Amino acid sequence: xxxxxRKIVTYSxxxxxEGGKDAPRPLRLIGVAAxxxxxxxxxxFTEDLSPEIRxxxxxxxxxxxxxxxxxxxxxxxxxxxxxxxxxxxxxxIEHASALIHTLHFGNHYRRAVAAKTYLAFTNLRGxxxxxxxxxxxxxxxxxxxxxxxxxxxxIGDAPAPDELVVALGASIGGRPHHRIGxxxxxxxxxGDLHG
Length: 195
Hints:
Distance between the termini: 43 Å
Strand content: 25-35%
Number of domains: 1
Oligomer: single chain
């Protein structure tokens, strides 16, 4: 079984000015999403989701990783990363979660960008034009707040009730004019270095 992919959507934005001040380095946010038929659509409650996970998640992980790296220019260029899934109204949130919360999906992206941290995530249910929000974090340092970002875009005709949207997000750079410190400074201030 291969995922029945209806379309691939790519989103990209570049922030040049933030807070009325030129960004010392432009921030680029990228999202890539696959719109596919929910492999569990139209079936009674399915206890074991693993056959479809093993069949679809690696294909989606490889495809979306290749697409996002093509937009970014290289895996090395990507600094922040995350993932998201959205199921249509006839599906379960578990269906969306099943395809992204597996190493069969995420390891393609982690390896391609040489990441050390987990992939931040969201999983939701909604209809066409539901906002897709992909939380990002630094690929190598989960406490680096400059890379706590969100890629936000919508697909006008997706997901249909029997579809899923599976997405990856990336940043090249962090928030312009970052000045709130990082998690490690808070831990030091609180006297807790074990976090």
